[in-house]
Each structure stands twice: as structure tokens, then as C-alpha cells.
Amino acid sequence: MKNIEVKDFPKVYQDAHSALSDLKSGMTLMSGGFGLCGIAENCIDALTLIDVKDLTVISNNIGNSGRGLVKILVQDKIKKAYCSYVGGNPDLETRMLNKQIVVELVPQGTFSERIRAAGLGIRAFYTPTGYGTLIAEGKDVKIFDRPCILETALHADFAIIKAQKGDTFGNLWFKETARNFSPLMAMAAKITVVEVEELVECGEIPPEDIHLPGIFVQRIFQGSNYKNDIEFLAIQKES
Amino acid sequence: MSWSNEQMADEIIRFFKPHSSVNLGIGMPTIIAERIPAKLNIMIHSENGVLGVSGRPKKENVSPTLINAGKETIAIGAGASYFDSALSFGMIRGGHIDYCVLGGMEVDAERSLANWMVPGKKVTGMGGAMDLVNGSKQVIIMMNHFSKDGIAKLLKKCVLPLTGKEVVDIVVTEFGIFKPTGTQFKIIKLANGISISDLKIEENLLEKDQK
Question: Burial of A50 by CB count in 10 Å (0-12 exposed, 13-18 middle, 19+ buried)?
């Protein structure tokens, strides 16, 4: 960590382990990333070593083929999961069918909006998404221009997210499509832990370029050994 | 002769107005991205947070943080932008996306779609499909005409759990283009050499007086 001394900055932590030391069994955890893109690799690895169980995890995908959150799924640390897509995840599918885990599937737009709502003080909202489907069962329906269902905010105790670049106040800059759910989750959790590929001093990220203001970040650390796995490599055919 | 996936893609592309925006679902529809003529200036949206996808990247430009909703590596074109998932689905739900093209397990004459689970057998999750079918201005379904059991996937009423109720505008299969009207399917076009008997759709489900 170049010139940044952890002790000089209240939000800056040494590593994932120290930033997650007060995560307890039974807590709700949000985890950023789309598939394996933009996941908090260091935090997930730390979770495999922390003695916790019965976590409720809110994450669009629960990893894939031994990677991402599958690492703690196969340790049976997850009691309940909220996600939108479980395809291509045999470890999760098996546990779902054997009822070893409760999975609440949420339409992805509703999922992201419920998280955003939590962070921004909105308690609930009406949306047409899911009307007339299993998702609407037991939910309040109200007709505006068309029938809509009531969806409530999704909060968490902790969020683990990854950004490309962050400063000591927690201002974040995300690379390409690695942003996805991460800024929303950072807003929705009581304690947001951010790992970055590049921890910089305040002022290094121009204010105009900050994707998430640091007020939403409680802890930040310089990550290491990133794999940045590609799930499906697609390239142009050479002509 | 039934259409190839490429021919189906080209039939769908004919629906796109120049300078419009399109979201392409996982699976069969992804082939469309590579076949849209540049002169149409279509902005391809991917719900994980990018507008302006331009197909696959060159080998030397592959980036693990630049993917589509199918988690495949992609390239972007001039005018592209990145954003978070809430804004991305705001574009969809807010009615700013002109077309979405999704795969399907079943479509019915009432314009409903099923494509996210087979109870007791297969659960993939709905991903963004439920938002896309309710938010996009036009919903186009691209799918094989028959299920693995050889049954036509165009039905009077879907049997599988719905993705969206009364949301489908157009269905394209290897046999033709169909428009569910609420009670029947109107045949917009059939592939060359395909006759109505090949469709194996109940006769009273097909709208009469085809032009």
C-alpha cells in the first residue's frame, strides 16, 4: 500500500479479514458483481476462513462452478439467498432441490430497485414487473395505468463490494460493466466493505468521475491477487 | 425449408427501426448482435449495465470487466455508456428500450410468455426477463417451434409458470413469424415451403383469412 498508512485514515483497513472481523452468524450480507464480473474476491476468500453460519445472502448470482460465493455456499454457510439467476450453478441448484437452502428468486430489475430503495430511504414501491406471475403471490396489487405489485426495500448488515479504484474517504470508480449492483448495495448496507485494485489518496479521482460518493462506504482496503475470471470468453472470428 | 438461427435473426432485425435500442436475451437471441447492419445505428443494451454493445471483442481487446448479461466478453462501439443495474433497469421499466428479444419455452395466444422454470425439474431464475417483457416497447420471442418432446410451443394457454402476462408482441420460430392476438395466433410470414400443417398448432388457434 504505497504511501497510505492505515492508521491515518479511519475507513482504511489492512485487509479483508480485519474489515470483516465483526461479521456474525445470522447476519444479512450483500455481495456485488454480475456473475464473476466485479465480485469482491478478497472478501469472499476471507469469508471461507471466518467461522460464521446461517447467513442471508443478497447477490444476483451465487457464484458459479466453485468460484465466487459458491466457495461459502459449499461450506453451507448460507441459509437463505436472494438472487435473480441460478442457471449454470449446479451447487446451488442441488441445494435448492434438496431444500438445504431457501432461495427467493427476484426479478433482476425489482432486485436492483429494492436494494436502491433501501439505500435511499424508500420503503416500498409499485412495479408492473412480475404481475400475473408466481412472483406476485401474496403481494398487494394496485392498478395505475396497468396492474402493479408492491415490492419492499432490501436491507443488509454488511455489503462486500469491489471497485477498480477508491480513495481513503471511500469515493469509488468502477471499471466498465463491473459496476452493476455494487453502488446500490453500498448504499443499502449498514457496513459497506470495499476492496479496490488501487487505493489512492483523496483528490486523485476527479469529483466528476466519482461513481459512488464515499459517504456510503464505511471500510475500504487495498485488495490483492485478483483473478478477474472470465465466465464465457467470446472473441471475434479472425477473418 | 425451416429457417436457420441466422435467418431467424435476420427476420427479427427487419423489425428494428434505424437508431432504435434493443436488448438481447441470453441464448438464441445473442446471435442477433453480430448480424445487425452497422448502417441501422442500433444501440444494443445489456442489462448488466451497458448501452452500445458492438458484438465480440478482438482477442487483444478482451476485458474480464466488459461482459454482457450472458456473461460473455463483448466489445462496445462509439457512443456507448456504462451504468449501474438500477439505472439499467430504469431504462427498461421506464419504457426507453424499443425492443427486447428473448428466448421462450412457451408463448400463448393470450400474449403470455413462460421461460424461467419447469417446476420440480429446472430452475434457472428469471434474471431480467420479467422486467424486460413489462418494460420494453416491443417484446419479440425467438425460439424453436417445438419442445424437446416435439410439441409446438405456441399454445392456447401456457402451462409453465409465466414470465409475463399479456406481454408478447411477436414470436419468431424456424417456421415463421406469428403475432398472438389475445385469442389466436396470426401468421405474419411462413418460411419458404412451410405449410400450416407443419406448424402443429391447433386449427382454431390460427387466425383465419390470412392475407
Answer: middle
